[in-house]
Structures are given as structure tokens and as C-alpha cells.
Amino acid sequence: xxxxxxxxxxxxxxxxxxxxxxxxxxxxxxLGWMLFLKIFSDKDKELELIQDDYASPIPEAxxxxxxxxxxxxxxxxxxxxxxxxxxxxxxxxxxxxxxxxRAVLVREVFANNYNYMKSGIHLRQVxxxxxxxxxxxxxxxxxxxxxxxxxxSELQSAGTLGEFYTPRAITELLTELTNPKANEKxxxxxxxxxxFLTAALEHLKAKAATVAKREAIQxxxxxxxxxxxxxxxxxxxxxxxxxxxxxxxxxxxxARPLTxxxxxxxxxxxxxxxPFGGVVSNNNENNFPxxxxxxxxADLFLILMIHLLKTDGRAAxxxxxxxxxxxxxxxxxxxxxxxxxxxxxxxxxxNSVFQPYASVAxxxxxxxxxxxxxxVWYYQHQLPEGYKSYSKTKxxxxxxxDSLKKWWHKREENEQxxxxxxxxxxxxxxxxxxxxxxxxxxxxxxSSTELLELLHQSFNxxxxxINQLKQELST
Length: 475
Known about the structure:
alpha/beta; Ferritin; Rossmann fold; 2 domains; 9-stranded mixed sheet; 16 helices; about 45% helix; about 10% strand
């Protein structure tokens, strides 16, 4: 049996020695395009054997086996020159006239990525280690998929790509509680490195009894991603999960006017962690009705998701505290959510789940389109005993949600759960940032809006006391 963990360790050690891949982020990006091309090339060879009319979009000389398959083949400056000056330019400009969708995928991946390694000798050593792995062996592929997932999890502390990774415990929880079914369309409109998509795929595969049903899954699990690097990592991730042609659209979900999405774009299930805290680019807010225009990306994604769901469609999404409160357009967006959908549950998470790239408090929202909200159940997820916060070495674990899952199907008030009537929410200006009434006052956490208000009150009180003191001193 192949010692996959040993091979991966060797690859990482080689990359650490190369000046071009000195960080976790650059190592995963380098590994991403190499894995993509090796597995894609292997699959193309297989498709040519089993399909009489299949022709690979990759020119023969650029197939992995042709230039990388021989361990005694090109190395050093010759290998580096081939990859940088021939391989990447050719695949970035691959012929699309055949209509082969796999050609489009290759072009999009290589037109927006790079070979980061600077030593052709190190590159040869990495290639030779990858050649030890049989990606046509389903067991090897499955185990390597798990290793790749571990790589992606490390992006949380690896610079700019951390925002594209959602902890596995969260993607699995939202998928399990939303329970996508066979023949339902599942969408992540901000799919990043593909965590929700792979969770949905595994969930659906476990229920697919026939080959035909398993085949249908790969068309029904859909992702949209507009940044080239996570797009590459996501496609590689899905290919490792036995998806021949990932259904990932390379575009900004907010770039199309809302009116352009038709009934055929609507889906049964949405699972996503949309970007938040950022300002939308290219005046994309103008693609939305005037009443909902805002520069906050998370709020626009919420409007988009309501629009994209079919009637009776289900969504489970991650949103920051800032989207649960606020006046003006934020309030109007929450009002639309509560009037168009049944927001039946909000799970409140500790603010360290997404550290270090995001330290704000976050929430998991579950809603069904078609009926207005009558009441909202809240569930406060607690840190494990002895934890002050989550961290890289102590991430959130799936087992921590066992009590939530038991409560989910038989909801009752307890120290972690409480129910709020819609009238109470309307009277508070559609405020959804409602604290746990069972939590002692001294243990309560405050949102940034509340902290600013407390600070403002404190300054006002100080000004009053100073004025009072001045008057007393002047008399």
C-alpha cells in the first residue's frame, strides 16, 4: 500500500527548500496546479479508452506522462524552461473551438495561475514523488483527498487565501441539517476552495444507490467563484472527489444584474459562507434594486440567495453579527428575508471559529423560501470546556455539534436555546442580534454595534461630569 502521508511530507519538505514556495499558501497553490494537471491527464487517457468519440483538449506533448512521467526525464533549467515557457502559455491559450467543456476548464486554470517553484531540480523531485501516487486507485485518491483537505484547512493561517476556507465541521453541519436530496440542485455562490461542495457531494453519494444517480450528482452540485487561485484549488478538490468535470462557474456572483437570473437559475439548496467585511467592487451594488443597494458584500449575497432559491428551497449560510443588526438598507434586507422566507433557526457561534483571518462573531442562518417567518429559534454554541477560544491547533470539531443535532429535530428551550416571536423582532426594528436570555449578564458578549453604543454613553456621561465639575469650581 502506498505511504501517502510519507510522500506528502517529502513533497512539502522539498517545497520548503525552494525560494519560490516558502509559505504554506504558495506550496498549496503549486501543488494545486500540479495535482490538477496530473489527475486531469490521467482521466483524459481513461476517457479516450472508454469513449470512441472523446479527444483530449490537451496537446499530446503536454500530457503529464509525456513530460513528467519519466523519473529520469527533464530536470533543472530545461524542466523549468519547459513549464514556464511552453506548458503554461500553451494551456492558457488552449483551443476552445471544439466545444469541449474540459478545454474551458484547463484554460481558465492555467490562464490565471503560475509555476511558483524557482528550482528545476526541486520541481523534478516533487514530480517524482507525485508519480508514486496512483490517482486511478480509488482508495489512494480518497486518502489523498483527505490530505488535500488538511492542506486547505491550513490556509486559515496562511495569508490572503484563508477567507476561502470554511472549517470542515461547519460545512458538514450545515449540509447535514439542510439534508440535500437526490436530483436537487445545490449551489454555493461563493464556493472558495469547495468545502461546502465536497460536503454536499459526500452527503449525496452516501445516498446514491445506482451509477446513474451518482453521475447526476456531479451536474447538480454547483459552485461560483471569481478569484483564480481558489478556483484552481476548488476544481482540484472536486476532481479528488471523483468529479470528472466540476460544475464551477468562474465569475463574480454579484456581477450580474439580479433581473438576469431566470427560473432556470433557481436552486433547491444553498450552502455558503459568503465574503463579509469587504466592499463590493465594480459598482456591483447597482445590479440590485435601489432599496437594497449597499457596499457590504454579505448583505448583497443575502438578497441574491433569496432570489435564487426556488419556492420551498432551503438555505444554510454563515453571516457575521453585523448583518443581523443596523438601520437603513440593512434593516430593509432583514425585513425582506423575514417576509419572503421562514428564518427558522440561527446558531450563534463564538467569535474565534474563523480565526485568524476573521475574528468577528458569526452566525449560521437556516431559512426556507416561500412562507414568512413566524418565530426564530436561537441556539448558542459554547466553546468546549477549558477553551478560551478556537485556534489553529484547537479548531472547531464536528463532535461539538452533537447536542445541537439532537435538539434540532425536537426543539425546546434550554440554557443554550430560546425562541423569539416575529412580533418582538419587528418591534425591535427587525433586529436579529438577540442575546441568550438564559445567560448570566456578566457572561454576555457584545456585538461591535453594542460596544460602540456603550462607549458613546460612557463619553456622554464623562462630558456631563466634567461640565458639572467646571460649574462647581466656577462658583
